[in-house]
């Protein structure tokens, strides 16, 4: 007597070798039936003896492929059909007529060891082939046009497989079985390499097409096409980098700009061309051993660097590493990543022995400042010719552009700074059912979020929405994710700031019911969702800018909140910012505001660096603006407080990128102990008065204390502020759970001090692990708040 079961599985089960895995265990337990991909995930019908079916179901849960994840498994009884074998069926476009069904689209996966062996083994037919992949690795999200995830629904549809690749693709026991990007030199994508001069001479700038599978169809002159001579192109690319040239490289989710990270002239020139005077560049190295030579690594760092997601990891840098000073000026950390595509590996090939290869490459996003990353060949010349000397292109089209992810380790766990390649669009499963909403995120470090069932689908990093190009990228990403996940939002959540492009999009373009969400409430809700908690918490939201319900700029906030509502129970005392956004770029303006608040008219006579470094006329104009409240805006911003201290100590008066003054203040800190005084003024909300701390900082500095010692004490003081405010709220509200969120908590020194001190005081502390604490996680908080409010209205 036998049984037949239908098993429907949702999770990361497409593009990760799940169907061949099911096939193998079905054969092991003598099952008959089938398995297929559907828009929901994977569907299975398995028939066999009672014991064998139970063994099959047990193995299904216990022996998952390394990249697979089961979020939901539903089993139902079926009538026996007497199948004679177990087979892998073709995918279906719709499943059981289920309206709005969806599967989880897999993120892009770093090259696996098996494929590295293939393209580094001289006898292998994929030797030195830069597009080698299998079921366990390769492009996913960046090439998918629609679900289910099958080759015709990807940009690889332009490349018909050769006989050998087709044989691998159709063999359930081969690791390339239904590896949708499967290809080889005979049938797959290929490289081209141009110098900028060659491009200009051949007038090809408008003809650099994606998706050409046959070299005979190319408009490129034969000398620029790799074909089977790809080794020559790779050799030439390595030699150009070694010679100090700057290379535009088409990668997995867009273009990188690469150069030798040890060549000070090349790095400085790239910095000049990219108009990026201070912000650190990321570095790619060929091996963990080289990473160890450059930086101090923990076991958690090593695991993150070598894992399948391969993000940029922020690491303490070693002295005398050989990396050019211009790679990360003013920063004690280095952003390091290992190769995650075959092309990256091959650019380092022979780097220990061969002339023409580098130990470390700057690998920064292929874009001009404030623009989206370039992803199409035909856009490379118009948008990157001012940056690059040479162009290394390929003809596999990128459907969805995706920047590199950036993470660091905090207390042994991942702490995201930018969640993108390797992570997006992997949904975040939540413990609560969600209405279908669109959350637009904020203005800076933008991501968007869609919700469906119990999933929050957070997009890849989109960037700062300050121009038309980035806003188009936002719309393009929204359209893509809605199609993938079959989401039909009933409402749109947005920030309260009236001038954000996302707010205008929500109110003027969407045609959906708008739900405004306060910025810092969204931050704390994001941390709650990240940690899978609900109910009331104490929320500490510290950042640079967030529009408040009183029309002022918030940023040093102590909240009591849940997913529905928030109360602002305390904040940093307001200071006047002169010139609005100018104060963000010129921290000395914040310093002057704090000095005037602490010292009054005596402020301008203090012997401080800013009065020596900033022209007296500018100082007097801004001081008059503050004194007379002309063109000022009041703010409780913690980001501006850190800026002010940085300027007071002479570390940074003007910035070239967001957070620079605070980062350099953190980097300067020593291991000095002690805290500065502060006051908490009673009221509803209470206010934290840091004028006593500013007075003490100034007296210490004038008295000869080193800026690094003062910075260390200031960080400890801010941790003390957090603890004392949380103690007050614990007494008044009976709460012991604290969520820490907002861009200021990217400061690991502050985060570490605050978390440790809170725990010592008996609090349960929650920090981010799946989404960034900065505005890159804001959309998740907006989404769960909006969804919770909609659900409440349904119940009422």
List keywords for this structure.
796 residues; 20% strand; alpha/beta; 7-stranded mixed sheet; single chain; Nucleotidyltransferase, domain 5; DHBP synthase; 24 helices; 30 strands; Alpha-Beta Plaits; 10-stranded mixed sheet
What's the structural blueprint in terms of helices and strands?
Layout: E1 2-12, H1 18-28, E2 32-38, E3 41-49, H2 50-62, E4 69-78, E5 86-88, H3 113-120, H4 163-169, E6 191-195, H5 196-202, H6 230-242, E7 247-250, E8 255-260, H7 264-273, E9 282-284, H8 288-294, H9 299-306, E10 312-316, E11 333-337, H10 342-347, E12 361-365, H11 377-384, E13 390-394, E14 406-410, E15 413-418, E16 428-429, E17 437-439, E18 449-452, E19 455-458, H12 468-485, E20 491-495, H13 501-509, E21 513-517, H14 519-531, E22 537-547, E23 553-561, E24 566-572, E25 575-578, H15 581-585, H16 587-599, H17 609-613, H18 616-628, E26 632-635, H19 638-648, H20 660-668, E27 679-681, E28 686-689, H21 691-702, H22 707-733, E29 737-741, H23 748-760, E30 764-766, H24 778-795
Parallel strand pairs: 2-5, 7-13, 9-11, 10-14, 17-20, 20-21, 22-29, 24-28, 29-30
Antiparallel strand pairs: 1-3, 1-4, 2-3, 6-13, 7-8, 8-12, 9-12, 10-11, 14-15, 16-19, 17-18, 18-19, 22-23, 23-24, 25-26, 27-28
